[in-house]
């Protein structure tokens, strides 16, 4: 009896070289809802190697939908803007390696408050939110929302 050998040969399908990929960015209303629910996490302070830092990593993770982050140190003037990396629609919550995630380090206690207001792609804004560093946590990363205006 003869045996028939069958070879598995992959079928070549007519597939474009680069398949069209769908955006993974959430609708703006969902981004706003998530940011509102997590507003206590927008800012974190840290003392490290004798210097004070603050981080806005959470906002960078949800930057798709945010047009601008206005902020100010030790006042509510909102006289600065935080540089936001471009939104990558395929991996929207990933922070690029070259993103600015924290301030230029300062003397311990030099930043007592950080005021932040977000402007979204649709032109709407959040209240001005004032964040303070936690006390007595050593080098742990910690901050809290003190007030909204």
Description of the structure:
With 149 residues, the protein is mainly β. Helix content is 10%, strand content 26%. The strands form 2 sheets. It has a 5-stranded antiparallel sheet, with no helix packed on it. A two-stranded antiparallel ribbon has the order 1-2. A hairpin with an 8-residue loop joins strand 5 (114-120) and strand 6. It is globular and about 50 Å long.
Strand segment tally: 7
> Stretches where pLDDT falls below 50 for ≥5 residues?
5-15
Summarize model confidence as the mean pLDDT.
90
Content of β-strand: 25-35%
How many distinct helices?
2
Fraction of residues in helices? 10-25%
Q: SS-based structural class?
A: mainly beta
SSE pattern: HEEHEEEEE
Rg calc: 23 Å
* Main sheet properties: 5 strands, antiparallel
Strand order of the largest sheet: 4-3-5-6-7
The gross shape turns out to be globular
Short key terms for the protein model shown above:
mainly beta; 5-stranded antiparallel β-sheet; two-stranded antiparallel sheet; 2 helices
Write the layout of secondary structure elements.
Elements: H1 28-37, E1 44-48, E2 51-55, H2 57-61, E3 66-73, E4 80-82, E5 114-120, E6 129-133, E7 143-148
Antiparallel strand pairs: 1-2, 3-4, 3-5, 5-6, 6-7
Kindly summarize this structure in a few lines.
Helix content is 10%, strand content 26%.
């Amino acid at each position: 009896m003869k045996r028939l050998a069958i070879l598995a040969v992959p079928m070549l399908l007519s597939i474009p070289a680069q398949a069209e990929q769908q955006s993974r960015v959430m609708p703006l209303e969902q981004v706003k809802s998530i940011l509102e629910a997590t507003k206590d996490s927008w800012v974190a302070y840290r003392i490290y190697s004798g210097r004070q830092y603050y981080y806005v990593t959470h906002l960078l993770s949800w930057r798709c939908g945010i047009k601008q982050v206005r902020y100010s140190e030790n006042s509510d003037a909102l006289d600065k803007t935080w540089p936001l990396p471009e939104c990558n629609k395929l991996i929207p919550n990933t922070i690029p390696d070259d993103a600015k995630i924290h301030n230029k380090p300062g003397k311990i206690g030099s930043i007592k408050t950080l005021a932040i207001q977000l402007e979204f792609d649709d032109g709407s804004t959040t209240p001005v939110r004032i964040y303070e560093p936690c006390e007595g946590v050593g080098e742990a990363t910690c901050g809290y929302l003190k007030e909204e205006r």
